[in-house]
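User: Reviewer 2 asked us to show a designed sequence for the structure in our supplementary figure. I'm pasting the structure tokens here. Could you produce the per-position amino acids so we can include them in the response letter?
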């Protein structure tokens, strides 16, 4: 019984003591958490951004000037007329056999006539020196020699039509499906040679932007399938006339492509750099709020938010120039600014 009395007594003391205490709430931190970064100076560029499709800087068709049976040239046992192969201007790719055309040229006959005319000219010169031929005879012999030489050279050129050669330096592309000894009609296009050591893009620029674009301006080129790669070109030509259908101006951009990474037909984004500045205050675009028709940001001063109206300038996809309202080195709020008000207490978090 004594033990029970003791337990009851102790419990009573605990209850009385706990009831006599007043709960004291934990202090609440009313400061707004924000993330900051120092205002810096940097470089910024303003773009006119458009899209377009790349083309080879030079393109030429491979055509059969006359008809005939085709025989492909082979090197190391392989035909040279294959898609994607690099060729040089004048390189022989195939030959055509056309006996009727060859006989009609009469090359051997014209060669013999040329050689005979040369011999006759030498004889006439000798006779003229000795008084055995007139000046007219000599002139006729000289003319006959020239005519026969020209006829022979023309025949050689005619026979060259039986040879199919690369028209320019470049890469074979769009080749037709042709087999050895197929009969080829005159005028048939056998394929193309593309030179894309440089590529070009014909861009359509709006009436609002065309006044910003000048020849020689640098252009940044990106392709959506090669996001890590950036290429550079320049504005080479600006059309003076507006297209009556699209209501745009055509601007031609040339891009160096020595590595052949860019290919004709690729869809690209072109950022024409129309203006650039160096060593100016630059901040992320997203930190600017519009309050009361004013562009404002927040900086931290003595652990409090301070609202600043800013005047902006050039901008790119991510950043914007601040002409006035901010100084280099100030602590700019980049997160948590949405609910801030001027003079609010803040807590800088990482």
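Assistant: Here is a per-position design you can include in the supplement:
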């Amino acid at each position: 019984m004594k033990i029970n009395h003791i337990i009851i007594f102790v419990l009573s003391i605990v209850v009385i003591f706990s009831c006599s205490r007043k709960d004291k709430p934990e202090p609440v931190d009313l400061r707004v958490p924000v993330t900051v970064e120092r205002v810096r100076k940097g470089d910024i560029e303003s773009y006119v951004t458009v899209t377009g499709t790349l083309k080879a800087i030079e393109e030429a068709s491979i055509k059969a000037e006359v008809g005939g049976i085709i025989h492909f040239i082979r090197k190391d046992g392989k035909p040279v007329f294959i898609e994607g192969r690099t060729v040089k201007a004048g390189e022989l790719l195939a030959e055509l056999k056309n006996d009727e055309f060859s006989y009609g040229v009469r090359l051997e006959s014209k060669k013999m006539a040329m050689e005979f005319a040369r011999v006759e000219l030498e004889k006439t010169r000798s006779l003229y020196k000795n008084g055995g031929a007139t000046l007219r005879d000599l002139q006729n012999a000289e003319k006959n020699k020239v005519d026969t030489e020209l006829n022979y050279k023309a025949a050689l050129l005619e026979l060259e039509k039986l040879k199919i050669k690369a028209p320019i330096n470049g890469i074979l592309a769009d080749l037709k499906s042709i087999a050895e000894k197929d009969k080829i009609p005159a005028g048939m296009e056998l394929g193309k040679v593309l030179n894309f050591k440089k590529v070009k893009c014909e861009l359509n620029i709006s009436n609002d932007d065309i006044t910003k674009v000048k020849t020689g301006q640098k252009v940044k080129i990106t392709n959506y399938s090669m996001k890590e790669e950036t290429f550079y070109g320049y504005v080479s030509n600006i059309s003076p006339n507006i297209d009556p259908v699209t209501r745009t101006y055509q601007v031609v951009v040339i891009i160096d492509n020595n590595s052949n990474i860019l290919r004709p037909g690729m869809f690209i984004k072109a950022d024409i750099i129309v203006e650039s500045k160096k060593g100016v205050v630059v901040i992320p675009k997203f930190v600017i709020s519009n309050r009361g028709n004013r562009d404002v940001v927040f900086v931290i001063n003595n652990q409090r938010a301070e609202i600043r109206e800013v005047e902006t300038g050039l901008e790119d996809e991510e950043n914007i120039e601040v002409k006035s309202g901010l100084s280099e080195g100030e602590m700019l709020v980049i997160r948590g600014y949405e609910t801030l008000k001027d003079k609010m207490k803040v807590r800088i978090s990482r």
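For the response letter, you might also mention the following. Residues 32-43+279-348 form a domain with the conserved putative lor/sdh protein from methanococcus maripaludis s2 fold fold (CATH 2.40.420.20). The first strand starts at residue 32 and ends at 38.
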